[in-house]
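Quick start: what a row looks like.
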Amino acid sequence: MKEICTLANDTVYDQLIAFLNSIEVILGSNTPVCIYPFDDQIQQIKTEIANRPNVFIYEDSVSIQRWDEFMQAAAPERLNRKKFRLYGAHRRFCAFDGPFENFIYMDADTLVMNSLDAVFDKLNESDFVVYDFQFTDPTKVYNIQSPKLLEVFEQYRIDSEIFCSGFYGSKQGLFERDTKEWLVAELKSGDAEIIYSGAGEQPLLNYMVMKTGMNSYNFAYSLPDGEKTGCSVTSPHFQMRDNILYDKGNRLTYIHYIGVPPDLIRRVCAGENIEFPYRDLFLHYRYLREPENRPLFMEPLKSYANVSGSNLLERVLRRLRIS
């Protein structure tokens, strides 16, 4: 059985529905999906998944508290709700406690585009499997100005092992208590200065995986150029056929709507005609079970730039520094 995990609250309700529907279409309606609660705002989600027997919310409060305490010890500044929008993002780490022996974690703002068998197969020989191009920009994971960085990780590892935390396959039991206590001690003894100060849990997870010397694999780094695909809406060249995206003829594994804010998604689902990349694809999966409720846009199309004062793709690319 191929088991999937995600992280959500009611703020990303529309994205979550689209994500679950994509799983149903691509992977099958019996695919187990565990939702880790970003915070306590999950009433809409609870109502929705009552009609989805394969989907459940993680309710191990002891596990959740352990990871909250780990984050408080390892990077307390990232729990600041006033400073970090992703203050609960670390709860995805609960997947290392359970309930699945092997799992793929996917952010709620992703859509499955293809079988995930290759990722699960790779877990037979690796403990951590990813598929993205974050390794091309270490500045959003580590403080590359820190002289200590190359004392902790060799340059070739920085060039090849960095990943985006929005999609990864891994295993239960990789971060037991002793390992977490050691990681916290290493951070407090000086390693904390190498961690990128922005974002949520992503820099810390990269550190956790790399510091423990975990056997990791990145399809985007390892596949031949003619076989690898992109995964982000910041790539404008994907082609859509039958509600599936292709990159130069190769079918994507997943598409990540990174940088498209939940508020924008809510406004579009409420009928406001605002463009964002691959919008029709998102709306197809969002309203797959209820096509009669798909918004009918009566107003002229508005660009995101006119709504926000900044072009979405330019803003995201500027932040990520990748294409």
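That is the whole record. The mean pLDDT is 92. The radius of gyration is 19 Å.
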